Fold this protein.
Amino acid sequence: MEILEKKTNSEHEKVLIGREPASGYHGIIAIHSTARGPAVGGTRLWNYVTEDDALTDALRLSRGMTYKNALPALPLGGGKSVIIGDNKTLDRDAIFSAHGRFIESLGGAYITAEDVGTSPSDMEIVRRETRHVAGLLSGTGDPSPYTARGVFRAMQAAAKHAWKSEELAGVTVALQGCGNVGYNLARNLHAAGAKLIVSDIDPQKTLRLVDEFDAEVVEIEQIHAVDADIFAPCALGAVINDQSIPQLRAQIVAGAANNQLLEDRHGETLKERGILYVPDYAANSGGVFSGCVELLGWKLEQLSKKVDEIYNTVLNILELASAEDISTNKAADRIAENNLRF
């Protein structure tokens, strides 16, 4: 495998590009920070148009992982890897074996797990080549239920802050993305008595939510603009931007997607519009917590407790933002950056 270091105009410690023509592997590993411990972050498989697009995603996602791990003061840093390829046609055994060798070359500086486009089964292939991987079938497996539970608790905290009650019965939630996390979040919301409006690029995923949770389906271009109390982005990032913000009708934005704000300034724009934004890396950290069973030796009871504590973490962020009259993303960053100075 050919591994080249990529110089970037960022604060990242190391960014590497790996290519292996024999297997068709083309991937990027971005290590943002190891200040608190080894860089941890999942592997995303996506059919990026260009390598620059993949690099931009890796840089944003790895920085987000640093803040996600620092916010609850985990002894972990932030990193991310992306694989460029078509999920439907590539040879998974060859690609993820190559990815494992790429990770192993870093000697433990980076630890991966599943992410968009990958699964615990893929991580088992990676495990053949390196021990620096979590989220295995033999471990906690699919982190989606924990991620979804954390987002649900974050929504409850936002409701408590905005409406003085954490009850979500009768609340309408616009759910963008009905994959594993979206499905589990919908299940939590339905059990709480919420009404669901959903969208996804895959019609079969939305139909499942119609059948099981009596959801209403809208086109993917409409979901952010529907009449709802909460907008829950659970697909890809950058959905909160100059075009979407004026169309939002929800009072709260809280979801599982990473990097929901296209730019940091959009957090301030939401504040100016009176829309309460739950910083994504605070809401979606349940998936990282599930990996701590393997990475840090947590017991399942400790895992469940930490996921439920996302409620208090989010409340603290929202209260700090109100007290300091700053955007919620700035408040979350302030707490995380303080933990990075330990």
